[in-house]
């Protein structure tokens, strides 16, 4: 107890770190607030500290494309052209056919997660 500025439990005069109002006799008579392992000063003023932080994670996004079985289909009749060489020694035959090509493609992405990081920020959450 703290009597006349002397803390018997901690054996020292003046204010000890357990007796916030030394000199007020019998302050702790009804209950014992002294805990030898607790080095905090007793206080009736509870506070909470707040800090807003930004947490980030880099994500690499890569495209992917998988081809399925390709299908073809002729459209109409072929067009045939014949071209004669200027000196008359040969001809070229050009055949042109329109073809519809069906190419199934499955598009997607692949993601790769990087190392996350945290930093303090000066803004407040609303």
Describe the fold and architecture.
With 126 residues, the chain is mainly β. It has 2 domains: 1-44, no CATH class; 53-120, no CATH class. It has strands at residues 2-3, 6-7, 12-13, 53-56, 59-67, 71-84, 91-102, 105-113, 117-120. The strands form 4 sheets. It has a 3-stranded antiparallel β-sheet with strand order 1-2-3, with no helix packed on it. A two-stranded antiparallel ribbon has the order 4-9.
Task: Tell me the number of helical segments per DSSP (H or I, 4 or more residues long).
Answer: 0
Please tell me how large the radius of gyration is: 44 Å
Number of E-state strands: 9
Q: Which spans have pLDDT < 50 for at least 5 consecutive residues?
A: 26-31
Topology:
Elements (H helix, E strand, L loop, with lengths): L1 E2 L2 E2 L4 E2 L39 E4 L2 E9 L3 E14 L6 E12 L2 E9 L3 E4 L6
Antiparallel strand pairs: 1-2, 2-3, 4-9, 5-8, 6-7
Quick recap:
With 126 residues, the chain is an all-beta fold. The protein has strands spanning 2-3, 6-7, 12-13, 53-56, 59-67, 71-84, 91-102, 105-113, 117-120.
Short descriptors:
126 residues, mainly beta, 2 domains, three-stranded antiparallel β-sheet, two-stranded antiparallel sheet, 0% helix, 46% strand
């Amino acid at each position: 107890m703290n009597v006349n500025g002397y803390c018997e439990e901690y054996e020292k005069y003046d204010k000890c770190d357990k007796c916030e109002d030394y000199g007020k006799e019998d302050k702790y008579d009804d209950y014992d607030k002294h805990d030898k392992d607790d080095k905090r000063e007793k206080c009736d003023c509870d506070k909470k500290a707040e800090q807003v932080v930004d947490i980030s994670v880099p994500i690499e996004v890569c495209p992917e494309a998988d081809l399925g079985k390709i299908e073809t289909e002729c459209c109409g009749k072929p067009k045939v052209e014949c071209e004669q060489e200027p000196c008359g020694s040969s001809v070229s035959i050009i055949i042109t056919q329109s073809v519809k090509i069906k190419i199934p493609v499955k598009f997607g992405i692949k993601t790769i997660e990087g190392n996350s990081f945290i930093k303090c920020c000066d803004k407040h959450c609303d």
